[in-house]
Predict the structure.
Amino acid sequence: MVLSEILLSQEVLVAAGAIGFNYMTTMGIIFVNKILFLHTAFPVLSLTAAHLGVSALFTRLALALGIFKVRAAKLDLIILSVVVLQGLAISLGQASLKMNSMSFFQLTKQMQVPLVATIEFFWLGRRLSTVKVCLLLTMTFGVCLSNASDVQFTVLGAVMAVAGTVCTSAEVVLYSWLQQSQGWETLQLLYNTMPYCTALMLVVALYNDILPEGYFLKVSNGVVAPGPGPGGGGGDLVPPIEVEMFHINAMGIILFMASCVLGMCVNVSSCFVGGKASALAYAMLGLAKTITVIIVGVA
């Protein structure tokens, strides 16, 4: 088969389309979230839990529309591993951001490419040619150099950053392996994993974002609503069209909804890329996203 036939084959076109869609939605969610965080005090982990929850609801909607068929799966070791790895990757990543500088966070993220290649080599026996290894190392080293300024970190923060990247890499490989070797469709897999991921992230968000601040949701039309404090005591008048939790207003709600839709698109397309292309291709896509963010930031 000639190269042009390979490049125009359905499998390659579908994978390329998924990669392009994931790239665009990721850039979109970065833009939307930046505006959301500028106008509200919405915590990152709570927003991530919402993204996962919307993704879980989307799989239920897709099932109701007959887009895919359910594949029964008990919460076995593999599914449980995916859930735990995803929860740890997100939580450790946010902890790393709090303890280290953004530059150090970006540096550790670039470890994902060699880590994915290493996991696939030892677990799945996948080998890369010398040319591919040199290309991957060159790209990774170049991105690392661009993030080498203002690198600040703590020992505990560095450990969390490395652990988070390891969890992310293992999660990506597992998602890809389940689809490519075990015959799972993307939506079938997410249908089984997303509810558990959402529940785990809700617990983490509740502990990290809500309980320390004593938040209680206040929605009203000028009536007394429960305020912070044990049992919701000490109520006060809440102005209309305001949700005091996370200091979010009508504009913030619109941004939140847009972020959730984009987050769902990113989650589904990320899993799809891993299944139709490879875990390494998804890791390389992460490099491309980082390069774009750097270019936009410089511009």
User: Anything to note?
Assistant: The beta strands are 224-225, 236-237, 242-243, 248-249. Residues 215-243 have pLDDT under 50 and may be disordered. The longest strand covers residues 224-225.
